[in-house]
Amino acid sequence: MTKKTSKYDKILNTFIQLLIEGGYQSATISKIAERAEVNPSTIFRNFTDKKGLLSAVVDRHLKDLSTIFDGVSMTGNIEDDLVILSKTYQEFQVDHQEIVLIGFQAALEMPEINKAVEEIPVLFKKILGDYFSDMKKQHKIRETIDVEAATMNLLWLNFGYFLSVIRFDHPNISTSATDFYDKQIRFFAKSLV
Amino acid sequence: MTKKTSKYDKILNTFIQLLIEGGYQSATISKIAERAEVNPSTIFRNFTDKKGLLSAVVDRHLKDLSTIFDGVSMTGNIEDDLVILSKTYQEFQVDHQEIVLIGFQAALEMPEINKAVEEIPVLFKKILGDYFSDMKKQHKIRETIDVEAATMNLLWLNFGYFLSVIRFDHPNISTSATDFYDKQIRFFAKSLV
DNA sequence: AAAGCATGCAAGTGGTTGGTTGCATTTTAA
DNA sequence: TTAAAATGCAACCAACCACTTGCATGCTTT
Predict the structure, then answer these.
(1) For residue A99, which of A87, A112, A85 has the smallest C-alpha distance?
(2) Which residue of B has its CA nearest to A144?
(3) Residues 6 or more apart whose Cβ sits within 8 Å of residue A10
(4) Does one domain contain both A13 and A78?
(5) How far does B159 lie from chain A, in Å, by closest CA?
(6) What is the distance between the alpha carbons of residues A101 and A19, in angstroms, rounded to a whole number?
(7) Count of structural domains, chain A
(8) What's the rounded Cα separation, in Å, for the pair B31 and A108?
(9) Could you list the residue range(s) of the whole structural domain that residue B87 is in?
């Protein structure tokens, strides 16, 4: 696979970086050009217009998303598995936080962004639901557990934590990643068995 | 307490409405003026500049926040109490979603917005932490429960659910408010006793 | 070496937005 | 009723931004 042009990736990466730093409106063509050491006209030649840049971000995101849980294998130990799944989800979210941020900012310019953002939790939910169903069949979690409730619970827990991490600073509501996995996720996992 | 001017509130309410509909950049002075049936110059006379509008939103928000848990009384039944607390939090969040949205959008223009946004979960955490500590003293929740973990768990669960509600549309990850309280919160509460 | 393609450069365009100002008019309060 | 305060109005400004274009230059490929 040959790269589209030599500057294409550099521009796109710079754009994403600026998105994270200041959001969509703040990611000006001239800022991108300057930081990517590229002429503004080059940006338009590669991406047509600013929406084209957004599109490219969404495309790249969807491509990455499709492989997020590839190579992740379960151990059969509930606690460990939920940590692994949560960690996989969290790392992907943080690595792709720009799509979430512009989902909050540019949903008007590009409604399909929200669809792309949604797909992350939708996929994660499917993985979790399948896992819990499986574990229930194997009697590794209690009979009385509502799989749907457990799934959504863990989903929102992860989603809430992720957004706290990327937006909040306050010490009272900050938690290190290790604490999150070792305390929160395991706390949750224990309630299932 | 006398209102500042007759148009002040109308402008501010219109601004908030537009913030929810389309975000900060989209909430143009001329849009506000048109919908509030007011002349653009009146907006500047009342709020100095656009940041002044933001400031006013933040001020109003902080004022409302200070009374959020006033008049909320506990029953002693864990499940019911956690539903009440979550409901109080959720309703406040939805009623003040604009501050969260602009926290994602205008944090650059006004860094103090994020502080204001943070204060909601910070306060909620304190309420929850106190409640759990109290219940533990009364032996109404298990000895082995880590209060901090339980608190953060419920906090992120609520935060994640709230953001899902205001941003997501996908049927797979949508849940009615009643389902959230009756299934999720009670599911969580049961794990404590 | 030649041809084609990507890029740099510079000047410019049109639209939008936040913000100002002076004056006429309406609303409010004493 | 009257004075003061709040608003409407309209013209205007400066800044910024996305985007265009024509041409020169450099790089890559064959």
Answers:
(1) A112
(2) B187
(3) A36, A37, A38
(4) no
(5) 5
(6) 8
(7) 2
(8) 16
(9) 73-190
Taking only the tens place, the pLDDT of each residue in A109-164 is 899 999 999 999 999 999 999 999 999 999 999 999 999 999 999 999 999 999 99
Do residues A42 and A120 both lie within one domain? no
Q: Are residues B18 and B52 in the same domain?
A: yes
Q: Model confidence at B193, in pLDDT bands (50, 70, 90)?
A: confident
**pLDDT given for residue A49 in this prediction:** 98
Distance A173 CA to C6 C1' (A): 49
Rounded to two decimals, the pTM is 0.94
Residues B42 and B95 in one domain: no
Tell me, yes or no, whether A68 and A43 share the same domain: no
Locate A105 and state its tokens. Answer: 């900012």
Q: Which residues of B touch A158 (CB under 8 A)?
A: 156, 160
Q: What is the pLDDT of residue A107?
A: 85
Same domain, B46 and B107: no
- Which of B22, B167, B187 is closest, CB to CB, to A146? B187
Question: How many angstroms separate the CA of B103 from the C1' of C27?
Answer: 37
- CA-wise closest residue to A125 among A76, A84, A89, A72: A89
Contact of A131 with A85, CB cutoff 8 Å? yes
In the predicted structure, residue B1 carries a pLDDT above the cut 70: no
Task: Tell whether A93 and A180 lie within a shared domain.
Answer: yes
Q: Inform me whether the pLDDT recorded for B33 exceeds 60.
A: yes
Q: What does the longest C-alpha to C-alpha distance in chain B come to?
A: 63
